[in-house]
């Protein structure tokens, strides 16, 4: 283990053992755009694999567009038996020959175009993978930020409930209230402790997901406070116009082109194959012989094979076109779903910010005033305090859900 890996392991261990301790003080907060940049620059194996595939197809495009190697032959022809006397018969000779076969039709050029199309498809898949990594980082960062805020809000509510516990104990000591109120506070405090454990569990899971994407050293950093920064989304119609250039569709378009070249190559097999021969014969004390010839293969008895091969390539091309149409429908469905989610969550957030949260806080204040005037029981006061917590958690969840829907829309628009 080198120094860098050792340092990363030590920092990660400190982050796990002391999630709000020295590491948070030593490192700058991690912003959402920074997390995306780190993930895209981390040389993810899935991205590197696709680049290697594209390079392999580039190499195959060159390799498969070359002529086949010539065939060189050497033989002793017309040797008399049983004497094996090389000088006895005038036809005995030492022959050298070369044969060059030419692929049928435009097979070489079509093979090169096919491999080039597959290279383009691999590179579009690479671009798609990079966009998916950016989307996953955004989703994970936002999820982690929600559980961080949920822990903060719950701890704050637990502190307020504990303050109410002091009031309940004072009232019980003065004979103003019963022991039930004190026990109720203990119950609610224990329930909040259990909720905090569940929040920490989800926060740890989100942190582990983030570490997988950006590494242990960067993933252990505390998140930046404040509203997350995401690029703005354009209108639904503008996003729909950009779907045609989505890398998932462009990769399938390149695959359709590759399948089309397969169809063209299968059609070329109906053409005759041509090969050229040249031979030179050496005879002892006699004139040498030379010959040049052309051989043509006639596709007379393999037509059925070629018919089925051509039909198969056409079916595979049609299957790839259908896959492309299916992906276009999936992108359209995702756009409609995420745009509806983004829009309706915005409306719901506005209701909570302008009405629900204020009413919950007003209800808490009214319950406290009523309890001070002996017009409400203690249980109602506790319920009002917990209702504020639930409302704040719901609002925080709605905000994160809307940002995650915005991240989905950015993925669809290519941002």
Automatic annotation (TrEMBL):
InterPro entries: OMP_efflux, TolC-like
Signal peptide: 1-19
Keyword line: Cell outer membrane, Membrane, Signal, Transmembrane, Transmembrane beta strand, Transport
Pfam families reported for this sequence: OEP (PF02321)
MF annotations from Gene Ontology: efflux transmembrane transporter activity; porin activity
GO cellular component, one term: cell outer membrane
Subcellular location: Cell outer membrane
Similarity remark: Belongs to the outer membrane factor (OMF) (TC 1.B.17) family.
The name this protein goes by in its record: Outer membrane protein
Organism (species): Hyphomonas jannaschiana VP2
């Amino acid at each position: 283990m080198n120094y860098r890996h050792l340092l990363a392991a030590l920092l990660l261990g400190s982050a796990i053992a002391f999630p709000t301790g020295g590491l948070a003080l030593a490192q700058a907060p991690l912003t959402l755009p920074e997390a995306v940049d780190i993930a895209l620059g981390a040389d993810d194996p899935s991205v590197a694999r696709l680049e290697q595939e594209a390079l392999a197809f580039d190499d195959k495009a060159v390799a498969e567009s070359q002529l086949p190697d010539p065939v060189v032959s050497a033989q002793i022809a017309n040797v008399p038996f049983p004497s094996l006397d090389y000088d006895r018969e005038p036809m005995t000779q030492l022959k050298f020959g070369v044969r060059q076969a030419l692929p049928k039709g435009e097979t070489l050029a079509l093979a090169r175009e096919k491999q080039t199309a597959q290279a383009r498809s691999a590179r579009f898949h690479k671009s798609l993978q990079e966009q998916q990594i950016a989307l996953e980082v955004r989703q994970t960062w936002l999820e982690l930020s929600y559980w961080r805020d949920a822990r903060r809000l719950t701890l704050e509510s637990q502190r307020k409930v504990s303050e109410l516990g002091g009031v309940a104990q004072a009232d019980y000591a003065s004979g103003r209230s019963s022991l039930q109120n004190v026990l109720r506070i203990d119950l609610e405090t224990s329930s909040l402790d259990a909720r905090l454990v569940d929040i920490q569990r989800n926060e740890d899971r989100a942190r582990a997901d983030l570490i997988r994407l950006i590494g242990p050293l960067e993933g252990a950093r505390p998140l930046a406070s404040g509203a997350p920064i995401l690029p703005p989304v354009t209108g639904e119609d503008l996003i729909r116009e950009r779907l045609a250039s989505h890398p998932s569709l462009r990769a399938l378009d390149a695959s359709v082109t590759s399948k089309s070249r397969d169809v063209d190559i299968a059609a070329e097999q109906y053409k005759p194959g041509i090969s050229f021969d040249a031979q030179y014969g050496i005879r002892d004390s006699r004139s040498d012989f030379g010959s040049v010839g052309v051989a043509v293969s006639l596709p007379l008895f393999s037509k059925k094979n070629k018919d089925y091969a051509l039909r198969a390539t056409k079916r595979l091309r049609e299957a790839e076109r259908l896959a492309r149409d299916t992906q276009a429908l999936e992108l359209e469905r995702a756009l409609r779903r995420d745009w509806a989610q983004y829009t309706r969550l915005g409306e719901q957030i506005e209701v909570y910010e302008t009405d629900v949260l204020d009413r919950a806080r007003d209800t808490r204040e009214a319950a406290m005033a009523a309890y001070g005037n002996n017009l409400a029981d203690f249980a109602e006061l506790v319920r009002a305090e917990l209702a504020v917590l639930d409302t704040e958690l719901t609002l925080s969840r709605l905000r994160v859900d809307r940002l995650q829907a915005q991240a989905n829309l950015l993925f669809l628009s290519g941002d």
